[in-house]
Amino acid sequence: MTQASRFSFIAGSISFDFAATLRDRGVEGETDLLARPEDLDAWLDAAGLAPPGVKHKARQHHLRAAVRLREAIHRSACALIVRRRPDAADIALLNSIAAQTPLRPQITAEGVTMFAPRLIEAAMSTLAADAIRLMAGRDRARVRLCPECALLFVDNSPAGKRRWCSSAAGCGNRAKVRSFRARQRAVAGA
Ligand SMILES: [Zn+2]
Known about the structure:
- By secondary structure, the protein is mainly alpha-helical.
- Helix content is about 45%, strand content about 10%.
- Zinc ion (ZN) binds near residues 151, 164 and 165.
């Protein structure tokens, strides 16, 4: 598996894609894709938050801060879904990171790339700001948690009635197959 293909970018928002780096959260097969500082570097590249060719090297403290941010995003979004007030400490963290200098777009010969003197810190600020906009803005009613794989996503369907994420694992399909089998068992046992 290539570095980039470990990560999924199907959540409909970059901050939720970031939250998805703890894959199958709380369910069978949970995997932390941000286990080492190099994983954070790989994710930033895969997410297009680091300009191609610009060197960045995450250190252990960057990883710790990134995981703290990721968990604050996840908890706050989950609170929103069940209409609970997010934890004050999580909101304070999101606010303080979002207040830092974010990535800035720059026009180069290759097109528009994102730039910042302190790239990793700036990327975290961009992620925190994205999460805040999502959770406090118009899309807040469209924030969902996939009941199969616990992935946060933004329901962009016209009717706004999507239940499952659109992962390659086919969460919706998996759930339907399971309920079909349960019905069959019930019929066989009747
Ligand atoms: Zn799912």
